[in-house]
Design brief:
The complex is a heterodimer of chains A (115) and B (112). With 115 residues, chain A is mainly beta. Chain A has no helices and twelve strands. Chain B is built from no helices and eleven strands. Chain B is globular. Chains A and B meet through strand 6, strand 10 and strand 11 of A and strand 5, strand 9 and strand 10 of B.
Chain lengths: 115, 112
């Protein structure tokens, strides 16, 4: 079974609009971490945001926020006021305890920002 | 501060050839790992290391070997390349306490 599911293979969004990228996860552990990474066309993987399962507040990093709904096992990335430079692949990932830092990755969402 | 450096960036091999992808980090990170990225799939962990002299298998270790003789270096060896190993390979490192992985720029390998 998929542990990380990103249901949107691709999205088109108008510049300056907000965008939500979906991520659902599956774990029986109570303690885990959720990550979002960005991969622009140049290929590098860029860390965006992290949410711990015990964090009471949703994580925010500048224009990025994570809409964490623990009961629904959902960790959606919200990008406010999208910019052309936000066009990229976005990956959701999870780290479980006792996993020796291993990350389990979703298949990614390709986001294209239209001018 | 170079971060994580991977070489080469591109490589073409023939089936059966061997090669080593190099990975070096200058951040004194205990944890290092190799992932492969294939179209339509998330990254998959090949091997990882939690310190010098310690390595372990990830999700897709077959056909790959690693070693960790120093904190800085974590080479990935393909002993007998197969077309199924055509992929983009990423090296990543991190500290034991921090949650964030720092990735190298990636190495694109094609096996003919």
């Amino acid at each position: 079974a998929q542990k990380i599911t990103q249901t949107q293979p691709g999205m088109f969004v108008q510049e300056k609009e907000a965008v939500t990228l979906d991520c659902t996860y599956d774990t029986s552990d109570q303690s885990y971490g959720l990550f979002w990474y960005k991969q622009p066309s140049s290929g590098e993987m860029i860390f965006l945001i992290y949410q711990g399962s015990y964090d009471e507040q949703n994580a925010t990093e500048g224009r990025y926020s994570l809409n964490f709904q623990k009961a629904r096992k959902s960790a959606n990335l919200v990008i406010s006021a999208s910019q052309l430079g936000d066009s990229a692949m976005y990956f959701c990932a999870m780290r479980e305890p006792d996993s020796n830092y291993q990350l389990i990755w979703g298949a990614g969402t390709k986001l294209i920002i239209k001018p | 501060n170079a971060g994580v450096t991977q070489t080469p960036k591109f490589q073409v091999l023939k089936t059966g050839q061997s090669m080593t992808l190099q990975c070096a980090q200058d951040m004194n990170h205990e944890y290092m790992s190799w992932y492969r990225q294939d179209p339509g799939m998330g990254l998959r962990l090949i091997h990882y290391s939690v310190g010098a002299g310690i390595t372990d298998q990830g999700e897709v270790p077959n056909g790959y070997n690693v070693s960790r003789s120093t904190t800085e270096d974590f080479p990935l060896r393909l002993l007998s390349a197969a077309p199924s190993q055509t992929s983009v390979y990423f090296c990543a490192s991190g500290t034991a306490l921090a949650n964030v992985l720092t990735f190298g720029a990636g190495s694109r390998l094609t096996v003919l």
